[in-house]
Amino acid sequence: MPTDRTESPVTAFILVKTTPEWLAMTVAERVQAFTTQVVPVIEARTHGVRSRFYDTEFYSARVTDIWVWEADDHDAYRLLIDALRETPFWDRYFTVVDLLVGIENGYARTYDLEPAATLAT
């Protein structure tokens, strides 16, 4: 096993379900709420995080959206979750159904192996 390790980026899959309060808003109100009540808190309290948002409500009744976050390290991820919990995103506009957190190819890093992945050619 390798002895010189570097911190791996952390990937978090935040599985959420919209609340009636969120759905009662117009699209413009949702954008306004998100950009004024959620984004500024994340930007002020975190560093080294990036996100992507996936709609799943047309495939799942339990989870309506998946918010994928990449954080430079575990501290950045912790700060992100702390920031989100201070906003109406958490349990007001969305119910957090599950948090799935992992390290991409963690096993390969542990055993100094090439990642087993399928690549498009």
UniProtKB/TrEMBL annotation:
This is Darcynin family protein. It comes from the Bacteria. It holds the Pfam family Darcynin. Belongs to the darcynin family. InterPro entries: Darcynin. The lineage of its organism: Bacteria, Bacillati, Actinomycetota, Actinomycetes, Pseudonocardiales.
